[in-house]
Design goal:
Rossmann fold, 6 helices, 7 strands, 7-stranded mixed sheet, about 20% strand, alpha/beta, about 35% helix
């Protein structure tokens, strides 16, 4: 089974904030595949989708960003999912808003959700799709910025990025990830 994880924070007050781009991408995949994340286990919401390429789990950890690994590791263990079969979608301050960067492995780069995953999974060698949210404007603190909503001008750019993430996730089900990287980076 493949596992696609979108990182974010639970709760209405975090809906459509920059830090929740992972949740937004999972919601877009679920909508496209006509499913809902109706299962709740191990501090997360998920669903398992039976696709022509095989079973795929869509997961939103509900532990808050900084504790994402507390949800992901038990799910991987319970469903016997190998680290090679996961993709993590999350926000990146160092990329221009809407820009994607796919990687097969890497450090946390200061992202606390990824730090938690690396700590609980025990490796940094997992596939990831980073979605750019840009740096905060001068004078704005990073925590305030990542928990803010996208501007009206950014919304269409983010919607395009989410659609590309959906396409990349679908492509990854039947292609080697290196080929998906070449197509979407």
């Amino acid at each position: 089974m493949k596992l696609i994880i979108g990182l974010g924070n639970p709760g209405k007050n975090y809906d459509r904030t920059r830090h929740n781009i992972g949740f937004m991408c999972i919601d877009a995949l679920a909508e496209k595949w006509n499913v809902t994340l109706s299962e709740s286990k191990f501090k997360g919401m998920y669903t398992v989708v039976h696709r022509p390429e095989g079973k795929v789990m869509l997961l939103k950890p509900l532990t808050y960003m900084n504790l994402s690994g507390e949800c992901v590791r038990p799910i991987m263990d319970y469903f016997d999912i190998d680290v090679e079969d996961i993709i993590v979608i999350y926000d990146d301050l160092d990329l221009e808003t809407g820009k994607l960067r796919l990687r097969q492995k890497g450090s946390a780069g200061g992202h606390n959700g990824i730090k938690s995953l690396i700590q609980h999974i025990g490796t940094q060698e997992f596939k990831r799709i980073r979605v750019g949210i840009s740096r905060p404007p001068a004078g704005m603190k990073v925590p305030d910025y990542v928990l803010s909503k996208f501007s009206k001008e950014e919304e269409p750019v983010i919607e395009q990025a989410i659609e590309k993430v959906v396409q990349a996730c679908e492509a990854s089900l039947s292609k080697k990830f290196i080929d998906v990287m070449n197509e979407f980076n």
